[in-house]
Amino acid sequence: MGLCLGVLPIRAAAPAAPPPNVILIVADDFAVGDVAAFNGGRTRTPAIDRLAAEGVWFHAAYSASAVCAPARAAIYTGRYPHRTGVVSLDLNREPELTRLRLDEVTIADAFRAGGYVTGLIGKWHTGAGEQWHPLRRGFAEFEGFSGSEPKMTYFAYPLDVQGRRIEVADKYLTDDLSARALGFVRRHRDRPFFLNLCHYAPHRPLGAPADVVARYRAQGHDEKIATIYAMNEVMDRGLGELLAELDRLDLTSRTLVIFTSDNGPDPIPGPRFNHGLRGMKYEVHEGGIRVPLIFRWTGRFAPGSRQAVAHFIDFFPTLVELCGLRVPLAARPRDGASLVPVLAGERDRTDTPRFWQWNRANPDYTHNAAVRDGPWKLVRPFVTRNVPEGASTAAPMLYHLPTDPFETTDVAAQHPERVARLRAALDAWSSEIERERQRP
């Protein structure tokens, strides 16, 4: 395997069709197994099911991290999150480790420079403070929250609306965000727009309308899982209203809709169905980093599934190509590659290695790190979701994902040379991105 640490070029050829509006929907802790179309009817997600039927579904879609803030940093920059400075979770306790560096250009910057009106509704989570406010990072409109709000619930919560804080106690958060997304689309129906809708559901603290929870309790789920499924159903209901509004405004064929989640399911409320994938949020096993991913652009991309690996660092170059954007000269090199040929069904690209690492606080690359190269995945084991106590000495594990998608059988002993190559690649990546993370 040849290690690819160089920058992958971004193609900027003008798209064949007029550039689309873009709605990028990011759920929070929503699992692949939460999509009703693929879980035997355990849940109710008709809008997401519609997107999956009308769009391109990626079987091997990956977040850039096993937790939320770094995952979002990768979406916004097309770069591994460590490069951007966003490596941990809590904006209040670890502000210096959760801020998107000011020398990073965001996809919102690129859209705004390209004449799009840009909006973020919902969770930001990549920097607290005036300099890191979404209105300073490429978004012309913001109606949302930081992502580390103490004592926030779904029935009583603060919102930042264009820099002004308001307290809401008479609405349900998910419904409120859905309504604000509808308002954004209606306001800007006559000009190109980029809307990033970042729902909080089904992130803790759990909370949902009692009547919806009761239906899932009646199916035999415990209170926590029933609440999570109810939270997802309410979010999906709002997505259905958004899709219906695009239809009503005759915007469906002019709008690319992307749906994904920031990472796998949260283990704290307890395990739930996730197709047998090993691990959950916080872990770089498949259950922690595999996410649902749908691209729907009606009339442009034929519906169907794709086997190619897709990673959050690929979003930026993909949107640049699809929308004919010019990347600002100040932008640092991106790590991802455009998914456009895969979306168009022209070919499955030759996948380059993809990397992951996460631990709370400053990165320790001996913990919870992984590299996938083609069918092979090397994992340095997860140790703790708290701050690790020193370097891990656990031996890396090797999996052949086509024959072992659930990572049940470590075949490292049978392939020592492959383990050595992948371990060397992971070490080289870790050193390179850590140097850039610590740049002045």
Task: Offer a concise description of the structure.
The protein has 440 residues and is α/β, with parallel strands linked by helices. It is built from eleven helices and 14 strands. Helix 5 (173-187) packs parallel to helix 7 and helix 6 crosses helix 7.
Question: Care to describe what's here?
Answer:
The protein is of the alpha/beta class and about 450 residues long. It has 2 domains: about 20-345, Alkaline Phosphatase, subunit A (3-Layer(aba) Sandwich), CATH 3.40.720.10; about 355-435, Arylsulfatase, C-terminal domain (2-Layer Sandwich). Helix content is about 25%, strand content about 20%. It has helices spanning about 45-55, 70-75, 80-85, 105-115, 175-185, 210-220, 225-250, 285-290, 315-325, 340-345, 415-435; strands at about 20-25, 55-60, 115-125, 140-145, 155-160, 165-170, 195-200, 255-260, 295, 305-310, 355, 370-375, 375-380, 395-400. A 10-stranded mixed β-sheet has the order 6-5-4-3-7-1-8-9-2-10, sandwiched between helices. A 4-stranded antiparallel β-sheet has the order 11-12-13-14, covered by helices on one side. Helix 6 crosses helix 7.
